[in-house]
Write a structure and sequence with these properties.
Layout lengths: L6 H10 L2 H13 L3 E9 L2 H14 L7 H18 L12 E11 L11 E11 L6 E11 L1
Antiparallel strand pairs: 1-2, 2-3, 3-4
Length: about 150
């Protein structure tokens, strides 16, 4: 089923996977040389989403505490965030809330393509809507940036 996985496909599949599929995707991705992480964040404030992902990326050693790597992660998160917000950046200030799974994947864009250098992919997947239960809808965003 998952013969060859690109960095973006790994990030998207992992973000939407059930517990039983997650192990299969994670094992295949790691066998192909990718480093992967899956976390969760819920917020009405975009800065909390960005901070949660950056904290996880540093804690799990996806990036070092140097500007170039932090900048790469920021742009990958920003691209993914623009996707879930459909180009309308903003949550709490327009009374929207988000409950999201986030995945971080680091490695080459294609399995084994080390000549191209290291890249980082971030996916945000979950629900967004008015801060009233039942008024939300599914969203997904993907950002990929060189590290």
């Amino acid at each position: 089923m998952f013969e060859s996985l690109s960095i973006g496909k790994v990030a998207m599949l992992l973000s939407m996977s059930s517990d039983s599929d997650e192990e299969l995707i994670r094992n295949k991705a790691e066998a192909q040389g990718y480093k992967v992480f899956k976390g969760f964040v819920g917020a009405m404030d975009s800065s909390k989403i960005f901070a949660s992902i950056e904290t996880a990326a540093k804690r799990e050693k996806f990036i070092k505490n140097i500007y170039r790597e932090e900048h790469s992660l920021y742009h990958a998160v920003l691209e993914a965030y623009e996707g879930v917000c459909r180009g309308q950046i903003g949550l709490g200030n327009v009374l929207r809330t988000a409950g999201l799974v986030f995945t971080i994947v680091k490695g080459s864009r294609l399995p084994g393509d080390v000549k191209d250098g290291s890249w980082i992919a971030v996916v945000l997947y979950g629900n967004m809507g008015a801060p009233v239960k039942g008024y939300e809808h599914e969203v997904i965003g993907l950002g990929i940036y060189p590290v």
